[in-house]
Design brief:
Helix content: 40-55%
Shape: elongated
Structural class: alpha+beta
Largest sheet: 6 strands, antiparallel
Number of strands: 11
Order of helices and strands: HHEEHHHEEEEHEEHHEHEE
Length: 313
């Protein structure tokens, strides 16, 4: 391992160890010479010096390695702190509520979004049972769900499959939620993290969409004129009740090239069946402003009707 990898304080120890190894070689040569020339005094002094250098080498090398290990531990600790701070920043900035519970289903962590969603502060809720955030009628169901999840050793599962879920705020009000749960084990203890999203706005928007859709359908059904709309693929997006009455049948899963034959669409003379390119709706889909007379004749009735197809429909 190169000297540059050691911390500054340990580099001198590493250099001293290298110097001691060189001295050991020298004293080893003196021991050999003393043996050859039968000099007991020189041999004893050289051997003592060799042992001292050996101990210095061992001690200084150990100190250098300890310093290097300490440096690596500090660097690793700094990386862990930085990673933890980065993760904490992500969790704290999350829009969804994040709640961690232990095996007893007591709350051990919640992020700022959870505080806002459930209207509790961390000091008020840490250590409290998760049931505090769940309406009483769901207590047993949710507790059993977490137990089953723990027993299966799965790492992730959607909590929404236990049925409709609701959360309970600090003021006692309830709100619809969508939740998922994940599990992990830390120091031999199981922890479960639930990610909870308040879906009140989504449900309200869906209710409003259904309401508007119903209102639009009432308007369409009250019209005397038939109204039909289709996309560029020939899929009918709108077909009013009056259109069914005028055409003799409702929308069908029919290819565009077969519309004329299926609905019995003829030119104003009542004998010439229109081709697909001549159909008023297809012409309108191409951007034409169409005002024409057609004859609808099928197995249900024979009826003349005047159709207006503005461009873009």
């Amino acid at each position: 391992m190169s000297e540059q990898t050691y911390p500054p304080g340990a580099q001198w120890s590493n250099r001293l160890a290298s110097l001691s190894r060189l001295l050991m070689l020298g004293f080893g040569a003196l021991i050999l010479a003393a043996w050859l020339y039968h000099s007991p005094t020189l041999m004893l002094l050289s051997f003592a010096s060799f042992v001292v250098c050996l101990e210095v080498t061992r001690t200084t090398k150990m100190r250098a390695l300890e310093a290097l290990s300490e440096q690596r531990l500090k660097a690793r600790a700094a990386e862990i702190r930085e990673s933890g701070q980065r993760l904490q920043g992500i969790v704290d900035s999350a829009m969804d509520a994040i709640i961690t519970i232990d095996e007893k289903q007591n709350i051990v962590y919640l992020n700022p979004a959870a505080e806002r969603t459930f209207r509790y502060t961390s000091s008020e809720i840490l250590g409290q049972p998760l049931n505090l955030l769940i309406p009483e009628r769901f207590h047993e169901r949710h507790r059993a769900h977490v137990h089953r999840f723990s027993a299966t050793n799965e790492s992730r599962r959607k909590a929404g499959n236990v049925g409709q879920l609701s959360g309970r705020r600090g003021d006692g009000s309830e709100f619809p939620i969508r939740a998922s749960i994940s599990g992990t084990e830390v120091l031999g203890k199981k922890l479960f993290t639930e990610i909870v999203r308040d879906i009140t706005e989504r449900i309200e928007a869906e209710k409003e969409r259904i309401k508007q859709s119903g209102t639009l359908q009432l308007i369409l059904d009250s019209m005397q004129e038939g109204l039909v709309a289709a996309d560029e693929h020939g899929t009918f997006l709108m077909w009013s009740r009056a259109a069914t009455r005028l055409m003799g049948r409702g929308p069908g899963d029919v290819a565009i090239e077969n519309w004329s034959r299926h609905y019995g669409v003829y030119s104003s003379d009542g004998t010439t069946q229109l081709s697909a390119d001549e159909l008023p709706l297809l012409r309108a889909m191409r951007g034409e402003n169409v005002s024409t007379e057609i004859v609808v004749r099928n197995q249900n009735f024979l009826r003349d009707c005047r159709s207006m197809f503005p461009a873009g429909l």
